[in-house]
Structures
1.
Amino acid sequence: MSLHRLWAIIRKEFRHIQRDKRTLFLVTLSPAIMLIAFAYLFAFEVQSVRLGVWDADQSALSRQFIASLIADGKFSLAENGNGYESLRGAMMRGDIHLGVIIPPDFEAQILAGDGASVQLIADGSDTIAAAGGVTRFRQRTAEFARRLTSTSSAPPIIVQAQAWYNRDLDSTFAMVPGLVPIVMIMPSLAIALAITRERELGSFETLIATPIHAFEYLLGKLIPYIAYGVVSASIAYALAIIWFRVPLRGPVPDLLAMTVLYLFASLGVTLFICGFIASQGTAMRVVMLLFFIPSFFLSGVTLPVDTKSGPGQFISFLLPASHFVQITRGAFLKAMGIDQLAAQSLNLFLIGVIPFALGILTFRKRV
């Protein structure tokens, strides 16, 4: 690899971005504008909620109560906890939406005719799942209590609910960080248009006549768009904090480092795909169909990922936005850093490095 040739490509791309107002807009300001629009637009009803249950009673009645919650599949039992820390860990990882704590004297209180309290903890970083889950949980609990009172004098079960990470269940706090990965797809669109434009205008023929290597060409394309993408993400983060009042509780350097990984993943996939695309129109449609639209509905930003659907879960895993949604919500609301989000960060790195390597192998200096 020649550093001189690599620097020439990097410098060319920086100048191209600065001089092309459309590309500069796509990689800097358009994500912030889209974030404002989408944050006020989207609201959905949750369909599936994952429960973590700490059954401190371990009685026949407590097991009946748990069975009644998950009977129709709207709730699924994802974690059998043995304390607050186990539920907290599962909630931090995003494995559960709700934590249920059944007290040790649950059955005894009901049989004695006293009120039995059940504590419910919701993950406030996903307000759609949390709000819908709390409402549904109260309904299921009331139904179970009515069945008890029909055969005994037991009083209804009392649900004591609270939310972690977003106490008031403000949907903006969850939606804005979740939308950042969606709007940050715009740098991928910009690099796709830039590469295909070179093929359409003939400037790619000039490049392939030079001694440039595939690695130098692709890395030289990648670095400027990552740099401008970080600037764009920083504007979006500032907008989330200042305009939408979303608290950023995690370390800023870690968030920026993981942002670089997300940009590397999305841009790496785009570089590989664009090796087989010859026109800007096709590039735009491909980016929209492969990244933009699926990321809205399969990344967990609007609805929880359906863990019962194997193909859906697989597609969700392949989307860089799925991992970055967990990162942005974790960093903003749960004070998580790169240590706690190492799995998501590693997934992003692999999603980026594999197609980037394939792009090098499939790169051909011909038109």
Note: Residues 49-164 form a domain with the abc type-2 transporter like fold fold (CATH 3.40.1710.10).
2.
Amino acid sequence: MQINQVRKAVIPAAGFGTRLFPATKVVKKELFPIIDQHGRAKPVILAIVEEAISAGITEVGIVVQPDDLGVFVDLFKNPPTPELWQKLSLSNQEYSQYLQELGKKVVFLTQQEQAGYGHAVFCAKDWVENEPFLLMLGDHVYKSDLDKSCAQQIVELYAQVNQSVVSLTTMPAAIINKAGCVTGVWQEFNSLMTITQLAEKPSIDYARQHLRVEGMAEDEFLCVFGLYVLTPKIFDYLADSIHKNFRYRGEFQLTTCLDQLCQAEGMTGYVMKGKCFDTGLPDTYRQTLIDFS
């Protein structure tokens, strides 16, 4: 029986951000500013950490490149200089103190080699140990349609089903080659499903043949929303993939290992009640600035 309390979150943030070059030559994409619903400017990574904390997470592990460690430590661990502190408004001084408290829940894990999303997740293995964990993308922020945050929705569902949970959203066929996609059998239509297969960035032809979902429009498919709660068994499949040098487009991917986990332990899909904002592309980052707040 798996432990059903999720205490830890993993956020890979060690990529190069090539799609946002040349801005990412000087600023990590996870540090790009967004404006939250309170009108506060904050780095993307801070909004993601706050999302994790909203779900009851008590420890957040951020996977970073060794050379980037300093700037992340400065954000979460170091107080402002006295000169800056004096110039802050009272509200921002209070937020700065809150940020220091938040930073006590953050640890940094390093990825020595940038070898893909699956490899970055694997770098958290020793820190996660033998626990389920919340996995979040380092460049996605979320807005829930419910009183519960998106992260809270999926963490609470894991406690109920006691198996790995992947959040889902509907995508048109034209863009599924950019996402991980799933198929399965509905437990509750358009809400909960028993996943039977996951595929990484499938072609339209493959999806039409293998990934159709009952009750959905002909050219609509279920794709990964960007939040997961996974059992530690995922690290066994990632380790095997890395050991065998099994790469997809030159990198170690997560989705193929998720499919192995699904076949071994079962997996629940959850159609997220909320919206996902991708800050990792110029057009979607610009739209996030308009819509997120």
Note: The longest strand covers residues 220-230.
3.
Amino acid sequence: MLGMHGTFRANMAVTHCDLLVAVGARFDDRVTGKISEFAPDAKIIHIDIDPTSISKNVRVDVPIVGDVKNVLSKMNDLVKDDKGAWKADRKGWLAQIAEWDKTHPMGYRQEKKGPIKPQYVIEKIAELTRGDAIVTTEVGQNQMWTAQFFPFNKPRTLITSGGLGTMGFGFPAAIGAQVANPDKTVICMAGDGSIQMNIQELGTAVQFKIPVKVAILNNHFLGMVRQWQELFFHRRYSYTCIDCAPDFVKVAEAYGAVGLRATKVDEVEKVIKEALKVKDRPVFMDFQVDPEEGVYPMVPAGQPLSKMLLV
């Protein structure tokens, strides 16, 4: 992943590459950062079925209008390298990417006696489901941490509203995904702000016995906006603190769903295992996480991808 919360290696690779092939990308502002310094030394090939999308945000050198499957099939024929010459040419470049990854890996620190880190919750869910789950997200920090720390290895297993920013999307999306895939584990990664946008759909899920699992990364804030206020407004938190959130366990139980809570690190795995056993109704998992944990790397607004704030 590249962009505002992309990996260090991805952002540096885009910044220093000499050729960028964009397949169906729209080059939104969360990906490009400062457009004038986006992939500044690269020739850009842009493939899209919609001609109006090409050079809309970033000027490209080679526009290709067509169906991606057809275009990539033809490109494969053009770039076959039977003699292995490209492998030698790329050796230094791949070594540079590996070095960026080694020096600035994606990470966090989870203390055994410290507050629960949201990244730890996501990694534990991935571990206990063996990555075999359909994951939906709400919007904000929960969305970015999911993209960073859940190892997706199958297509169509991440359902998110992306840059549209539609808080409240994740829970109904999870319900729909579960109905369409009754034998799959479906998990909604949510924040305590977003989940309240469509929390009433618990009634739908209970009535129709839809066993979606909702992992609420409960930091008592609208976390993404809080992070900006911390970094750029000296922690003058305005309209981001959620002091009057409901007890999500009691809300779940009031609807006839299952409510579980983890307040300590050693409770996280127990809660997830208990939730995964439930097959006949939805489950809310209320994880009380570190209230001021941030999403990093982060590219500040208006800055190029190379100017990342790191942990």
Note: The chain has eleven helices and nine strands.
